[in-house]
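Sequence design from tokenized structure. All designs in this work follow the same two-part layout: the structure record, then the generated sequence. An example of the structure record is given first.
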């Protein structure tokens, strides 16, 4: 618990004691005291709405409640400078922020670990994301989901959760059959043979290249096989190589997975049939028109769903039910699924299936990432210059770079539509958010180089910190002190974009401070104090950018 967190905890206890002393509520009735940092500095450094929370319990006007709370508070606490009541009953606290300089000493001890908390208390969390069909390259939507998923996992780990990153491999079903037929056609084309292409086949360049590779390696050997044997070989060949390409591209994008879970394994182990039998045993299925249906409408779905078709084959949702049942049975306290914009209808039917199986659906969260539109030169971009096909993750990494791509995707809430300006993403201007934040870090390191040239040690100097007395310095100190709680909140809310927003706000404070205050000057004590302050800012920028998977350059 850092200095600001200790202040907040002490203030919460002070407020709670005042509520009880004023007879506004008993200890049992006392709601959790919430403190927030007001956006408007004129509203104080910390504020609470406890008076509004107590209105129903105390049966009084919130403004009157606020006055009684303030009257009973211990005002002798050293860090409280002033208390004001505002609006309908908000209580605003102005604190002595000079004591916040202690945070620099704490950060100097923790360094790369600053921001870590035990908020999650080791709770096991499974995060499934990307999970693209292994039938071609990852596209624009996968790029956004990969960035959001990876950053969320980093945030959760920093907040003390035990996280597993999982990729669900759709290696069974009709899409893999179509991939096999498509690859067979491209293989025959490469051999110069007649090759009718399947109507629902995959026409991307990856399949073309893979067909040519298969022809070079195997010649016409596969043509001598029986069809079933040939298809089995091509299926496995395609899956192996396409999945390797996906892993390679994700690795270049700085995304790694702990688990690659095979859909086929659910069929091979009998888990799909077991899930159907369990639903039937629980009385949640019925037969109609020769098919087996799930009574999902009883659990919030808009209609019932077919599990087993008339011909005895499974619908696409049935192995997905088995997969999510497997997730619950592995003992995760929280299950997070990050899906694309086309999965809105998927959520209620999967929640209904899990409820029908007796699981707590509140343990399962779905984050649906909205559509991305790419713009370049003011024009909507739909096709890759490189291939003439849809924009892929590789295109983005080559055109924009990993840093800018990840930061921009991570900086927006998953449920918001995103217009991605490729020109802005590569520009070195303050309008480019990733440049703005990285430049803050580089700017600080430029000051450090100048300081070393003048004989100053670039280290936190405890003896000089009392020289930090300017309001912008206190603003920076308070912002640094808020970092651990910001990470904890982002983890609790599954809102990784909060980290990017925090870093942008911190960079704004830094740039403003740098433009108005000289760090290296005649006053040596103040110089050492300001170097100490900038060390803290640089450390948080580095820690935050690392969480987003973005570099923190020392020169730009």
């Amino acid at each position: 618990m850092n200095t600001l967190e200790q202040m907040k905890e002490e203030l919460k206890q002070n407020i709670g004691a005042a509520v009880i002393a004023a007879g506004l509520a008993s200890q049992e009735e006392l709601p959790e005291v919430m403190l927030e940092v007001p956006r408007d500095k004129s509203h104080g450094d910390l504020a609470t709405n406890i008076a509004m929370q107590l209105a129903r319990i105390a049966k009084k006007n919130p403004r009157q409640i606020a006055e009684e709370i303030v009257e009973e508070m211990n005002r002798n606490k050293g860090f409280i400078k002033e208390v004001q009541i505002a609006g309908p009953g908000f209580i605003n606290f102005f604190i002595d922020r000079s004591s916040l300089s202690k945070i620099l000493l704490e950060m100097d001890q923790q360094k790369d670990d600053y921001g870590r908390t035990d908020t999650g208390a080791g709770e096991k969390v499974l995060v499934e994301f990307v999970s693209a069909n292994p039938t071609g390259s990852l596209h624009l939507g996968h790029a956004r989901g990969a960035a959001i998923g990876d950053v969320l996992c980093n945030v959760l780990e920093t907040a003390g959760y035990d996280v597993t990153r999982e990729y669900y491999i759709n290696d069974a079903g009709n899409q893999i059959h179509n991939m096999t037929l498509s690859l067979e056609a491209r293989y025959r084309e490469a051999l110069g043979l007649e090759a009718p292409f399947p109507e629902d086949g995959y026409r991307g360049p990856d399949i073309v290249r893979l067909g040519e590779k298969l022809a070079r390696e195997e010649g016409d050997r596969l043509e001598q096989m029986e069809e079933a044997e040939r298809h089995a070989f091509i299926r496995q060949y395609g899956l192996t190589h396409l999945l390797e390409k996906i892993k390679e591209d994700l690795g270049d994008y700085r995304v790694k997975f702990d688990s690659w879970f095979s859909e086929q394994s659910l069929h091979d182990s009998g888990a799909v049939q077991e899930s159907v039998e369990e639903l039937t045993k629980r009385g949640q299925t019925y037969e109609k028109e020769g098919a087996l249906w799930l009574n999902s409408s009883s659990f919030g779905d808009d209609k019932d769903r077919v599990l087993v078709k008339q011909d005895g084959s499974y619908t696409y949702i049935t192995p997905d039910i088995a997969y999510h049942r497997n997730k619950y049975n592995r003992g995760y306290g929280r299950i997070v699924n990050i899906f694309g914009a086309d999965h809105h209808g998927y959520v209620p039917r999967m929640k209904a299936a899990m409820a029908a199986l007796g699981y707590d659906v509140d343990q399962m969260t779905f984050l649906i990432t909205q559509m991305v539109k790419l713009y370049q030169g003011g024009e909507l971009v739909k096709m890759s210059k490189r291939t003439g096909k849809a924009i892929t993750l590789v295109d983005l990494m080559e055109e924009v770079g990993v840093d800018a791509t990840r930061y921009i995707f991570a900086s927006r809430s998953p449920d918001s539509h995103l217009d991605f300006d490729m020109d802005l993403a590569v520009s070195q201007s303050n309008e480019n958010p990733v440049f703005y934040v990285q430049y803050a870090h580089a700017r600080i390191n430029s000051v450090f180089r100048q300081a070393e040239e003048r004989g100053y040690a670039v280290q936190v100097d405890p003896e000089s910190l009392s020289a930090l007395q300017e309001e912008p310095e206190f603003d920076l100190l308070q912002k640094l002190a808020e970092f651990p709680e910001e990470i904890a909140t982002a983890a609790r809310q599954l809102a990784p974009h909060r980290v990017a927003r925090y870093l942008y706000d911190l960079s704004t404070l830094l740039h403003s401070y740098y433009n108005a205050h000289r760090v290296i000057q005649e006053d040596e004590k103040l110089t050492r104090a300001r170097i100490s302050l900038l060390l803290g800012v640089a450390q948080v920028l580095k820690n935050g950018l690392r969480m987003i998977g973005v570099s923190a350059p020392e020169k730009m």
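The chain has four domains: 3-95, 124-167+258-368, 174-252, 430-548. We note this feature because it recurs in several other targets discussed in the main text.
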